[in-house]
Specification:
Elements: H1 7-14, E1 56-57, E2 83-90, E3 93-103, E4 110-118, H2 126-137, H3 142-152, E5 161-165, E6 170-174, H4 177-195, H5 209-212, E7 229-236, E8 241-253, E9 259-271, H6 276-287, H7 292-302, E10 312-315, E11 326-329, H8 332-346, E12 388-391, E13 394-397, E14 403-406
Parallel strand pairs: 1-8
Antiparallel strand pairs: 2-3, 3-4, 5-6, 7-8, 8-9, 10-11, 12-13, 13-14
Helix pairs in contact: 2-6, 3-4, 7-8
Length: 407
């Protein structure tokens, strides 16, 4: 109606305007200019999940101290390190178990810091388990190592066997070679602790950074309705293995309050080396550390794990634009690690290289060291490398530091 805008002409005259146009809506053209009230913001509604497609839900998370997880990389030891050796005797052959020892301070008691298995008769997958367990030995968390060894102690395989057990060689029955290996490692760690006059089991204040950073110490158990999981098939024709890798997943509150999906356990089913069940139990515990940088680090360490005559061709996961390409993988374990990294990337937790998309700061990641650069030049008479240049008036080898003629 005219009464709603008749005052506009007076306001235009007072403002010194020479002209003014007004538009009135009609039933044919409608409204040329109109202002509508913005819609009222609707309150956030909880996510409705179909009962047939739900995951386990955890609503309580730990609050670990920042940089509390020690980076478990192998230290550089130019002078080498001593190791304790034990021959494991099992029905399908014998192999050597090496437990490397290192003194944290000069003149101090040695500490176990790595595990190796060596021998042509070692079960497939046991070397990957030893590599993963070595990082746990360097985590500076005795309770975490105890939890890992407890998980390995009950791994059952096709046949149980008796093995002479240290220190006196009494026969002891084990459900499999994984359990036997874990028992020997536990015995050696306890022996070293006893020699150092330590009693880790009776200590009242044990530093447990990894245990404190777990969102679930035990594997989350489903109810009768079950839970969703992710599965992928692995086929290695070189070793006649064909099995399925299954990741059990759980919903957690993320750092921003939204729910995120995280794998909490991994398992295998089908035709595969049963010693790999030990690796699956170790990785399942690693998956339940709240900082995804921890499991990302563990999986990246396995990407270059090689086995004799175990390499094979398989598709590369996570390629952009639907691209399909195959490459040679050094072992079944390496391919499994790559597939698990790909699942974490699908969930928006890690990238395809295995690094976290969001740094939580719980794992203390060391800064990358810059390698000393060598420069091409004349042949060094001391080390034989063609790296002698003229520096500060003298011949200087950038490889070994040799100083020659000056002037």
């Amino acid at each position: 109606p005219y009464e709603d805008f008749q005052g506009l002409y007076t306001q235009a005259w007072q403002s010194g305007l020479k002209g003014l146009a007004t538009y009135r809506p009609n039933s044919v053209l409608g409204s040329v200019l109109s202002v509508t009230a913005p819609p009222a913001p609707s309150s956030a509604k909880p996510l409705q999940i179909d009962g047939a497609n739900h995951r386990l839900l955890l609503d309580r998370l730990p609050a670990p101290v920042l940089s509390s997880l020690r980076w478990p990389g192998r230290p550089d030891l130019p002078g080498g390190n001593p190791a304790w050796t034990f021959m494991v005797h099992h029905p399908f052959g014998d192999f050597a178990l090496f437990i490397g020892e290192l003194s944290l301070v000069e003149g101090g008691a040695p500490q176990p810091f790595e595990v190796w298995v060596n021998g042509a008769e070692q079960p497939r997958g046991l070397g990957a388990m030893a590599k993963t367990l070595s990082m746990d030995l360097r985590a500076n968390d005795p309770a975490w190592l105890q939890l890992k060894l407890d998980a390995l102690a009950t791994v059952s395989e096709e046949h149980s066997f008796e093995m002479p057990f240290p220190p006196h060689g009494e026969k002891r029955l084990f459900p499999g070679v994984v359990a036997a290996t874990a028992a020997v490692i536990r015995w050696r760690c306890e022996q070293i602790a006893a020699q150092a006059s330590k009693k880790p089991a009776d200590s009242k204040a044990i530093y447990t950074p990894v245990i404190d950073a777990m969102f679930s110490r035990n594997e989350p158990i489903t109810g009768p309705s079950g839970t969703l999981a992710w599965a992928v098939d692995v086929d290695n024709p070189a070793t006649s293995e064909a099995f399925t890798v299954t990741l059990k997943e759980v919903n957690l509150p993320g750092p921003d309050g939204n729910m995120v999906t995280r794998p909490c356990a991994v398992g295998f089913s089908g035709n595969y080396p049963k010693a790999m069940d030990g690796l699956a139990r170790l990785l399942s515990l690693d998956m339940r550390v709240i900082d995804p940088a921890w499991i990302g680090m563990k999986l990246r360490k396995l990407l270059n794990y090689a086995e004799p005559l175990g390499h094979f061709m398989a598709f590369v996961p996570g390629l952009p634009n639907g691209e399909k390409r195959q490459q040679t993988w050094p072992s079944t374990v390496a391919y499994i690690a790559r597939l698990i990294i790909h699942r974490y990337a699908m969930l928006g937790i890690l990238n395809e290289e295995g690094y976290p998309l969001r740094d939580m700061g719980v794992l203390d990641t060391p800064d990358a060291k810059e390698a000393s650069k060598t420069m091409a030049g004349k042949t060094c008479p001391e080390c034989g490398n063609p790296t002698v240049i003229h520096k500060d008036g003298c011949d200087f080898c950038t490889a070994c530091g040799y100083v020659g003629q000056c002037g």
